[in-house]
Amino acid sequence: MTLELVRSVTDLDVGDHAHWVQWLAVVSGAALLVWRRTHPLLIGLLAATHMFLVGVTMPGIMGQFSLQIVYFSAIFSAVAWARSRRTALLVAGGVTLFMLLWIAWQLALGTGIQEFIDGANENGSEGRVDAVLAGVALTFLINIVYFGGAIIIGQLAWRSARQRARLQEQAETIAAQADSLRRRAIVDERLRIARELHDVVGHHVSVIGVQAGAARRVLDRRPADAAVALSQIEASSRDAVTQMRSLLGTLRDIEATAHEADAGVDGYVGVGVDGAGGAGAGPTPRAPEPSLGDLATLVAERNAQGQRTAYTLVETRPGAHECVTPPIGLSLYRITQEALANVTRHSTATSADVVLRVVDSTPTGSYAEVEVTDNGRPRLGTSGTGLGQLGMRERAASHQGSADIGPRPMGGYRVRVRIPLGENGLGECND
User: Fold this and answer.
1) Distance set, CA 159 to CA 82, 96, 168, 363 (Å)
2) H-type alpha helices, 308-425
3) Which residue in 74, 196, 222, 358 is a FRET match for 425, CA 20 to 30 A apart?
4) CB–CB of 155/79 below 8 Å?
5) What's the predicted TM-score (pTM) here?
């Protein structure tokens, strides 16, 4: 279209070429842009070749606005879409250098300089610069801006696309890391609950076993003692079921959270212990988790069941054990519970000692420590799986603590776990 418009206004320098040849030159140049994204470097070279051939044979056609846009777009695409930056810049620079040399060749051996002289004589030059020098400088400046602009804009487009790709990649990486951290947190919580279940079941089952054996031995001779033992079995089993329901409810809440997160739902209705949910149904209230303040009760229950156990509290200031953070307190309680259950299941001990130490502001730092010792030997035929001791060590390691578990040189067995409290280990007691 622009070719016919220009032809109607001025006389084009097309030699003796027919109209269809002129149209073929324009259409063939425009057709190159179809493959500018799939083969950018090849199209850039073909466009430069097209510009040279048409410029030599039909200078008026090559100078048309439409073909100038085609050549500019081809060079821009070669820089913006090429995979290899070095190759793209070499091709674009080579094309630019070739075109400048071609212009210099036209000016030196062609009629370009004579046209500047004739135009200055015909129109009357009023400038302060020589007509030839001004024409040559202006020609080179226009072409440098033309080709350089295509290269610079193409490079800017490539950098912008690369930055967008990197931002998208970073966003995907952050999303994947967040999902991985979420799943890791769920797995860690499941492991924690598994350890809790192991400790709860192990402790209560060992108590039930001891009381059932005692009831069986005195059932015929002392029915009253047997009834006491059976009542203790009942209480222990009820306590075990209550704690297991609480832990299983927590596990179900975790499963619901994981399911809702995978489904992309921001909020969900809490699932109770019995699996009931729906509008207006919240999570079932759970029993509070035990703390260091419950160790005395744990020892008292064992004494009531006929398992002689002593409890000693050592602390640098009164009430310090009540200010130990709940996670540390729960871990030390469960470790003590598992250690006492192991005494019942696997030892011939007749007594055990539990010592809780809460030490604050010492040269070695603040810490909470529990030590369980007994006076027995390993009971034959009761070797365990080792999961109990592994759980104790894992609980200590989760708080950067240390665990010393094994037989004592003078007889008996000892479990000693120390957990550093750190700067904020005593919670509100630091205020």
Assistant:
1) 12, 21, 14, 57
2) 326-346, 387-398
3) 196
4) yes
5) 0.46
